[in-house]
Fold each of these.
Amino acid sequence: MAMNRIQFQAGLSLPAFLAQFGTDEQCADALEAFRWPQGFSCPGCGTANYYLLTAGKHKNFQCKCCRLQTSLIAGTLFQSTHLALSIWFLAIYLISQAKTG
Ligand SMILES: [Zn+2]
């Protein structure tokens, strides 16, 4: 019988998770790195040049080329949420680490 590799992969302890994703800033940085591994690129025109807008709860980007504004969470699972990213990350961790999750 073939071994289920997912079942036997190393888990992440709660203290290790909290050290890595315990704050909103850490979660935002992780989400940005997951979303744009090569750095921000405009979803409208693909340009990498942007202005960082400070208004709002999350990072907002404005393309220097087409002026399209987008936020870090726009178009993601977290769009329109009022909860902090750290709460969402913790919920995802708890569900994904549970054997019945
Ligand atoms: Zn653009």
Amino acid sequence: MSNNNRYLRNSWYVAALSSELGAEQFLVRTIMDVPVLLYRKEDDSPVALHDRCPHRFAPLHLGSRDGDEVVCKYHGLKFNCEGQCTENPHGNGHIPKAAKVRSYPLLEKFGFIWIWMGEKASDPALLQDFSELENGPDNGVGYTYMRMTANYKLILDNVMDLSHVDHVHGDAINTRGQLSPKSPKVESVGDAVVTSCEWEQTPPMLIFADFLPKPESEARHYFKVTWTPPTNLQLSVGATQSESGFDELVGQYDVHLITPESPNSTHYFFASRRNYNEEDPEYNAQKIQAMHDAFEHEDGPIIKAVHDMMGDNEFFDLNPVLTSNDVAAVRMRKKLESLIDEDSGVLASD
Ligand code: FES
Ligand SMILES: [Fe+2]
């Protein structure tokens, strides 16, 4: 049986990059099977409504704005930002009690718009801290969005097991076969799962090589990935040729924020802050485009092929052969499943 449509609902997920939501237009994004209409009020703060008119179920995004309110295209009911109907042009104008659409709590932080889709009251304290993204020059950070046609847990697995970088990725971030022989360290820290690894390679990862003292020579590298519920991955990666450990590091602080669209598709939000060449706008644009292309054209096709091959089967039901690099991903999946059980009121069986 598939559990691909099980989600940790009472949690914050990224709905959009802040930069995706302009002053005027509507953005529609399906999140955990629910079509959501996003827009900005005149004071710039974001709004999220169920994109479905309660009258005859027209998509609200086909309608128009009236100040901060939305007018349905089909028969003209008007809704405010809380989803309450404020005008009925029909008959005597009486507004039926049920004339409401659901509105969703939002937070705008760290360059993202976060949404709370669950039934419980939203809790801003549950939002993870990614303020490191904002800590430095504007041209030292880049943001991007991709839509992947695969289940969200396969995308989490892919970052929790970076041994695939040896095999899947082109020159820019290739790790030259050095990760696969390692058994990365895996720790549980509260609800988080943390995996890390150190290795040497020659030449260094090409995204770092030109910024190291000897671009052709061996460098020590490390990565550390921290998964926090529901689907946040923070990856730090860097290289050094210094004798004194990782103090003089050329590296980057990345976040991979994974939002289920449906059991078969996923919104993939990515941001990266680097500690080198931080003032160069052209390099910044090239760098984020190169990362985007690697995810879309290198990770994307193999993850989709895996998703299609697995069909509706649950991962563990297929009795996967597990290797030393799977420890972190398996631990993350088990923790996520138990949190989903808790969140949805199912008692864990062990
Ligand atoms: S469907 Fe929206 S007003 Fe009729
Ligand atoms: Fe990858």
Amino acid sequence: MGTAPRPLALRAARILTGDGEPARPDAVVLVRGGAIEAVCAAADPLPDDTVVLDLGDATLLPGFVDAHAHLTLPADRRGYEAVHELPDPDLLAFGRANAERHLRCGVTTVRDNGARGTLGVRLRDLLAGVPAAPRVLAAGRPLTPPGGHFHFCGGTAGTPAEIRDAVHRLADEGVDHIKIIASGGGTAGSRPEECTYSGEHLRAAVGAARARGLRTAAHCRAAESARQAVAAGVDCLEHLDFLRPVAGGDPTVEYDAETVRMIRDAGTYLSMTMQAGGYDTLLDQRGRPDPDERVVARLERYFRDKLGVLRRLLDDGLGERIVISTDAGPADTRFGRFHLGLALAAEAGYPAADVLRAATSRAAEACGLGASTGRITPGHADDLEAVGGDLLADVTRAADVRLVLARGTVVGTGIPA
Ligand SMILES: [Zn+2]
């Protein structure tokens, strides 16, 4: 379907505005010209030329905001090094296809947290001209030390002065935020449990970013990197795995209550990439008659630790700072499966209403878009989705997307006649 010049009214059995309020029964959302015009009762009169779509037993809610993804990575289990043998047009093609997959699962905004060269900004601008595509915020090249995690993107900066220069170069290119690799990650030769930058490096990045009006997001898998990033004033911590090095062995997960207290005091956002690190593989293995027991054991332990961290954060009152994101792109973390992170968060005991805020209004705020998307309220963009049934009763219903609306364009998958 193309862009509808006439007002469109979406009626559903229940509407979640994204604010954490109880569902509004039998309400209607009126959209026109790419924006939400009104939220009214089903019985209220509508403009004469309104096109009415009755979604029936569905939940209408704001489109999801994925605060952490890598659109230009193929999410097909290939390693980073193999992907970056590929030419730019291939990575842009991944980006277009991934954006469409994410849109169809209800994600209407994607914050791209790292792409090679200028591909992040190029993809964002390309998708801005496509009728049915999510809005993209691009970090461009993540800041990383020589040989560090994501170094192949070309954002290498070793000293505080180099970091400041790199931030200004990215700002000149038009990036939307700055991504800092504060600990190691899945790149060959990199260790997730170790810090990559000192506090001085991180402060240089944050200072330069602020001077250019840009927010910062820091990849923090190591516990110590999270502490340093909060102290440096980073706006959003990504992953937050609380990994600690163990001499001669695998790292352990050790929740750090002191860092969490600093996070709470600073009001830092936590972008919890729940399904990243192998949940797609774990689900696949669980469904096989002959699972690889070693892989299953490793992944069960990894996700048990991850849910344990989320539980502790909730117990410590951090629920109000948490954003649920995917980290789709690297390894096996596929696009179009946003619901998996919601299900994992609910499994950790995060109440459904909070999980949904963490994926809509709060995620939009964390990305600096709180005034334009993430809520069903007049004046916001018409970023909407409908899922079958009562989403507040069961967040896994987010897998059953019936309709997505973005920029005045309906992407329907199962609209009742
Ligand atoms: Zn990432």
